[in-house]
Design a protein that fits this description.
It is a single chain. 42% of the residues lie in helices and 0% in strands. By secondary structure, the protein is mainly alpha-helical. It has one domain. It is elongated.
């Protein structure tokens, strides 16, 4: 019974990971898209430029 429960839990984890992947793909997530540096007031926000604190994109 424990083996079956363990297998089911593993399948649930895989399904959750796949759902997260699909959501990120649907949202056009790009981990390489530049962000505003953490020390600035807009830190962590996506930016349309190379990491400058200037123009933020609509993403």
């Amino acid at each position: 019974m424990a083996a079956l429960r363990s297998k089911l839990l593993g399948e649930q984890v895989l399904l959750a990971g796949y759902r997260l992947y699909l959501l990120m793909h649907k949202a056009s997530y790009d981990p390489d898209q530049p962000r505003v540096p953490a020390g600035s007031s807009d830190g962590g926000q996506w930016t349309g430029t190379g990491g400058a604190a200037g123009a933020l994109s609509d993403n």
